């Protein structure tokens, strides 16, 4: 007899919840069951076929007689729970053919649409003045292959101001709801879900949002702004943080003079609405990655260099972006500006030169 290795236990007074994160089953145990489980965890050999609790724990899969392979995992338990817990798309029934798929998907969409989508409160928040952004201009260099080959992570920025017109182009091309795609709607797109960006979006939900941190942009006061993709406008959320950017971004002080950066957040409630399984959490990051790469390619095509990070204290960023509840969370940061093109800051380069090989 052994304890199933794919379990975690949540304390929930007066009992405890035992989660099998591989099979997504959960069981609520009262004190008697919890105490017996604690004894069996201490010594699985105590298993007794005549003890009803033991047999129930076995039937629930909390105990098991099968030998379960526990593959090597180099990170901590939390990442393992997350990874295994979101493996395998939950499908009760895999459609056999395209007709079945169409019927099943439509049914799912209709079920989802039977409840209203989460309120679009970012559109209303904050209620203050909208700052219209310049319409996007033609990029300096329209060649995708040039942008792809020139994109580079730089860690040495000059701090020079960025033009507001470039900010307009950058945001429109990265996060804006494209006017060019307004007519491009097919019958399967539900009402209210027809806005399209240049990057793909999980379920067409546009769960990701963007918040600009402005340090040096011509014609725009430094501060933190929400981007409104429908209006292609900004609204001020907060003044600039009273600390250097490096302090917010994992101590990476080489970007203290970055003229502008974009925090990419995800509205988890939009994803929950359509995709109740925790696997959708993965999709939030994938979508943020698409947006980040688009931002970098657009900035490169506008003649700037780029930098990116996921290293920040979420609590600090939540406060900065005024994300008041856990339904919207920051996932990534990407910034741009004029740079000397160096991958490393001067201080690091000096250090490397001083250090004997
Ligand atoms: C998910 C992700 C996280 C990253 N985080 C950081 C970071 O915290 N700090 C940093 O200086 N660069 C970061 N980078 C940039 C990588 O170091 C960089 O992309 C890599 O060295 C390759 O260089 P290149 O982007 O110039 O091709 C990150 C890149 C990715 C994709």
Q: Helix/strand/pairing class, anyone?
A: alpha+beta
For the record, the count of structural domains works out to 2
Q: Please write the CATH class name of the largest domain.
A: Alpha Beta
CATH topology call of the largest domain: NADH Oxidase
Topology:
Elements lengths: L1 E2 L3 E6 L2 E6 L4 E5 L1 H12 L9 H8 L3 E2 L12 H9 L12 H16 L7 H4 L6 E2 L11 H7 L13 H12 L32 E7 L8 E6 L4 E6 L6 H4 L11 E8 H7 L5 H22 L3 E5 L4 H8 L6 E10 L8 H9 L3
Antiparallel strand pairs: 1-5, 2-3, 3-4, 6-9, 7-8, 7-10, 8-9, 10-12, 11-12
The structure holds flavin mononucleotide.
Give a verbal description of the structure:
By secondary structure, the chain is an alpha+beta fold. The chain has 2 domains: 2-85, no CATH class; 121-346, 3-Layer(aba) Sandwich (NADH Oxidase), CATH 3.40.109.10. The chain has 12 helices and 12 strands. It has a 7-stranded antiparallel sheet with strand order 6-9-8-7-10-12-11, with helices on both faces. A 3-stranded antiparallel sheet has the order 2-3-4. A two-stranded antiparallel sheet has the order 1-5. Helix 6 (144-150) crosses helix 10. The protein binds flavin mononucleotide. Flavin mononucleotide (FMN) is lined by residues 152-153, 155, 252, 308-311, 343.
């Amino acid at each position: 007899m052994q304890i199933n290795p794919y379990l975690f236990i949540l304390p929930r007074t007066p009992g405890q919840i035992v989660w099998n994160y591989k099979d997504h089953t959960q069981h609520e145990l009262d004190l008697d069951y919890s105490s017996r489980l604690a004894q069996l965890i201490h010594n699985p050999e105590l298993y007794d076929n005549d003890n009803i609790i033991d047999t129930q724990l076995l039937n629930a899969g909390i105990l098991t007689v099968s030998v379960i392979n526990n593959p090597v995992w180099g990170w901590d338990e939390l990442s393992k729970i997350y990874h295994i817990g979101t493996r395998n798309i939950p499908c009760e029934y895999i459609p056999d053919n395209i007709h079945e798929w169409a019927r099943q998907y439509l049914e799912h969409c209709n079920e989802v649409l039977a409840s209203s989508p989460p309120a679009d409160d970012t559109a209303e928040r904050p209620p203050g003045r909208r700052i219209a952004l310049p319409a996007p201009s033609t990029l300096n260099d329209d060649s995708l292959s040039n942008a792809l080959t020139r994109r580079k992570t730089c860690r040495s920025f000059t701090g020079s101001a960025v033009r507001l017109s470039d900010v307009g182009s950058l945001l429109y091309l990265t996060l804006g709801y494209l006017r060019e795609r307004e007519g491009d709607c097919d019958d399967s797109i539900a009402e209210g879900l027809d806005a399209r960006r240049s990057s793909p979006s999980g379920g067409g939900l546009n769960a990701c949002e963007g918040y600009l941190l402005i340090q040096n942009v011509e014609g725009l006061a430094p501060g933190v702004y929400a981007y409104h993709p429908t209006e292609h406008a900004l609204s001020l959320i907060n003044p600039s943080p009273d600390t250097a950017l490096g302090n917010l971004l994992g101590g990476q002080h080489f970007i203290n003079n970055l003229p502008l950066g974009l925090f990419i957040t995800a509205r988890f409630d939009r994803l929950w609405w359509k995709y109740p399984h925790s696997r959708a959490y993965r999709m939030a990051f994938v979508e943020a990655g698409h947006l980040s790469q688009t931002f970098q390619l657009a900035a490169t095509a506008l003649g700037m260099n780029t930098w990116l990070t996921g290293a920040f204290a979420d609590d600090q960023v939540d406060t900065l972006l005024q994300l008041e509840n856990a339904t919207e969370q920051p996932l990534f940061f990407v910034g741009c500006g004029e740079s000397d093109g160096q991958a490393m800051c001067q201080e690091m380069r000096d250090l490397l030169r001083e250090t004997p090989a």
